[in-house]
Specification:
The protein is an alpha+beta fold. It is built from 3 helices and 10 strands. It is globular.
Length: about 210
């Protein structure tokens, strides 16, 4: 359990520091990402919540092995529409919410929600080791960060080199500044599992 827990301190964090840290720790040099990608990261780092509501966010652990199940919990002091975004260590962006099964992604005030228990999302740690950023956006009114056909794509994702989707996301992020919204973020470490050593057959006792 992360020390900055939902049931402990409920606070609203500016997203900048965490997103900046995740971006800086990508395994590839920033120069290898496109201008479209860097523009999205820079915009995320500069976003300023309008303090629509205090929002809390936590993960069940601080670090995971590749492929390990991940549970994300969150709570807002006001009812809101949420968007849950992951930025993986390789730079890809995955929007866990809204999705095909939860296209509205609306939550009630004061209730603790779980991606696993309430939204039936079987999230797992990304296939690339490194730092992963989890970002939660809560808006007072419905706000689309993307336009997706959930029948074809149940979970919307943006590959780090998909310039078209990145530019569309940048446009939406610029419009977010005019909305009443709040947010929170968390960083988790993704590790490669330790190799299993084959010690050979065990000798029988004499």
């Amino acid at each position: 359990m992360r020390k900055r827990g939902i049931l402990g301190v409920v606070g609203c964090m500016i997203l900048s520091g965490l997103l900046s840290a995740a971006h800086a720790e990508q395994p590839a040099a920033q120069a290898e990402f496109s201008n479209a990608y860097n523009n999205v990261m820079n915009t995320l780092e500069q976003l300023q919540p309008s303090q629509h509501a205090a929002v809390a966010l936590e993960t069940d652990k601080d670090a995971y092995n590749i492929g390990e199940p991940v549970e994300i919990r969150f709570k807002s002091e006001n009812a809101c529409y949420l968007t849950l975004m992951e930025i993986s260590a390789n730079g890809d962006l995955v929007f866990l919410l809204p999705n095909k099964d939860n296209p509205e992604a609306k939550i009630e005030a004061g209730k603790v929600y779980s991606t696993r228990d309430d939204f039936k999302i079987e999230a797992r740690a990304a296939a690339s080791p490194g730092t992963e950023a989890i970002n939660l956006f809560c808006t007072a009114k419905p706000f689309a960060f993307f336009k997706a056909d959930f029948q074809k794509e149940p979970i919307y994702a943006i590959r780090s080199q998909d310039k078209k989707r990145l530019r569309t996301l940048l446009t939406r992020l610029n419009k977010l500044e005019k909305q009443a919204w709040a947010g929170n973020s968390a960083l988790v470490m993704i590790h490669s599992p330790a190799p299993v050593l084959d010690e050979g057959p065990v000798a029988a006792p004499p």
